[in-house]
Amino acid sequence: MTQERPPAGSAEPAAGDVDRTPVENADVCVIGAGPAGGLVADRLASAGHEVVILEAGSRFDFEDRLARQERAIRPSYDRPDVWDGDPERDAYASTGEWFYPLNHARARGVGGSTLHWQGMVMRLHEDDFNSKSVRGVGADWPIDYRDLRPYYAEAERELGVAGADDNPFAPPRENPHPMPAFPPSYSDSLFAEACDELEIAMHSVPNARNSETYDDRSACVGYGTCQPVCPSGAKYDATVHVERAERAGATVIDRAPVQRLEHGPDAIQAAVYATPGDRTHRQAADAFVVACGGVETPRLLLLSESDHYPDGLANSSGLVGRFFMDHLFAGAGGVLDEPTRQNHVGFLTSECHQFYDEADAERAPFKLEFFNYAGPSPVEMALTGEDWGDELLERLRSEYGTHVGMGGLVEQLPSEDSYVGLDRSTTDDRGNPVPDVHWTVGDRALETIERVNEIQEEILAELGAEITWQVGPDATGPAYHHMGTTRMGSDPAESVVGPDLRTHDLENCWIASSSVFPTGGAMNPTLTIAALALKAADHVHESA
Q1: Rounded Cα gap, residues 314 and 299, in angstroms
Q2: Which of 32, 322, 355, 460 has the maximum number of C-beta atoms within 10 A of its C-beta?
Q3: Inter-residue contact 351 to 491 (CB < 8 Å)
Q4: Are 265 and 307 in contact (CB under 8 A)?
Q5: Backbone angles phi, psi at 262, to 5 degrees
Q6: What is the pLDDT of residues 8-41, one digit of tens each?
Q7: Nearest to 519 by CA among 180, 145, 164, 106
Q8: Nearest CA among 163, 9, 147 for reference residue 76
Q9: With 80 as the cut, is the pLDDT of residue 6 above it?
Q10: What is the pLDDT of residues 55-75, one digit of tens each?
Q11: Which residues are catalytic?
């Protein structure tokens, strides 16, 4: 079936004359306008600091989101096309034991990964902070759950989280979520009957999307394309805090990829960034916060090598880029002989943490997910078929709406053999070596996936489903949660940043990112990223 590109091709980054020259007398330079960078910038600008944000990608026009939604549902566009991925700009290498499809999950622009994320926000469990001590593997964080607990609560308020106190396995909390949880979906009710018979607990999923009007944004209106586009703005994305930071006086410079960080032996002096037209600028500041995510953060530090730091900036430990982690996916699904009402809800409303804290040295923590979007949508079925009219209608009626599916996230242990380095044989559109994702996956995660599949099979069998697909250890892939490449620790020889998120080597450089995670747990990382970003902002403010 051939077709021209649809009208969604007209969606373009926000245009206009933009001043991309450096800001004079900047107190803080934040590199990256994703959730971490947006929260840091908002907190510091609101406290009176002169803040500038440098973002490699574009600023997108909110009014174009319907066109981008159309891209997302048409098979003539790939996933990176939705948010204007550029193969040359976003070039990378994957040389590890496991192929890593990095560009499938990248969204460069103001908003970062939250432009296309699903929006699930859970706190890590208490044992996740003490994996080495409690489970006998991995590493202990230099902070524990109690240290991050008030920042978790603040992050939930800032992002706007809809949730309920119905998860008996969740860590302790102090107050209810800012908004009530979304009700269970119709297919959740089908799963609930099976899980009750198997004595498996289901509970609600905390979501960073509005179940009611919140923070001047509407309640969810049910577009169903949450990943990769929320046209209504009900799902949180980092433009909320970037724009709030601007209202507090911060300056945002988009399409300004930082090429390197100029520095002396103890401090960063300036961020050198490029702009359209091949111009180069130098942004000086008193303090720098690197918030580029788990891949681009170590890449920038490695690109900033010098006589002072011949192995990369802030890399006296030799661990910049090391311990790259992601969550592994396990899944299974099939069909029932009754309607399941899939694709009416574009996000998860129920999950299960029942088995999470059984983790030990042999078995990783994991959570179970109950899908609301199993099987193809009617649009996908119609656009990928060759039939028309009554024949098409009959096919849609007979084949759509009876699917059911489950997923699961499994922890990957940190390993020095899993890392992000530089591929000096390949360069991006600015002539810089591209990131090389060397991803390895250990036996503990793969064996745990087998256990997840067993539970999923039991539930689906109890449900009466004909299982038609399964993602097991031989077919698993990443959840696109980049973690661990500038790990946090108290010992400068064993980590890149300290408990205050400041690099051990540089007195004026903090890192706000999932790259500081010593371990990953099995929870979606964005709420922890947000909590750590708020913590980092407090430390930057205190040092001023």
Answers
A1: 12
A2: 32
A3: no
A4: no
A5: -75, 140
A6: 555 555 555 789 999 999 999 999 999 999 999 9
A7: 145
A8: 9
A9: no
A10: 999 999 999 999 998 888 887
A11: 481
